[in-house]
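Hi, here's the filled form for the chain we discussed.

Project: internal
Contact: R.S.
Residues: 206
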Amino acid sequence: MDFNGSDTIPGPRAEDQLPHTAQSAAKIVIVGGFGVGKTTMVGSVSEITPLTTEETMTQAGVGVDDNFGSASKTATTVAMDFGRISITEQLVLYLFGTPGQQRFWFLWNGLFEGALGAVVLVDTRRLEVSFDVMGRLEERGVPFVVAINSFPDAPRYAIEELRTALDLTPDIPIIECDARRRASSRDVLMTLMRFLHSLAMTGSLT
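And the returned structure, exactly as it came back:
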């Protein structure tokens, strides 16, 4: 019941309603290790108020969670982030950000279900955490692109150096980005959509 005594349940805000021109939708997952910027990317690019499940980090995570490079981080995603972006007037992407700590990775299987593709966010200070992430996507058969999130204090490498270090095949796109910037995050998603389109054209997308 609202403050006027009505039993009417308020609907979604006008800005959160699905555009009437939308004809198709796709589920995209944004994955990566702890603190690489997944929640930031979803929040920066989503056209609706994003749903987040961040909780304050406590002493319980000391010695369990690897927060190297993210010592100032005080909250962490424990389930998922959710947002939405219209790529065209007809195509809408639903964005699901995964939790970063390995103790929450059991949730990933459900988030991967039905995903058309994925963005793997990478922090060059911790390249090693990306291997398990990409391995899980490969096991599930989820196509992905790699986005190098530009942290101010992170070392910079040439794209081909990163390709070699991450053991990526030549066909997988790698793009640099700033997850805080809407335009940059949108460019990453457009790169993924072009990659998925190329796979569909060659019959590689199932």
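Let me know if anything looks off before we file it.
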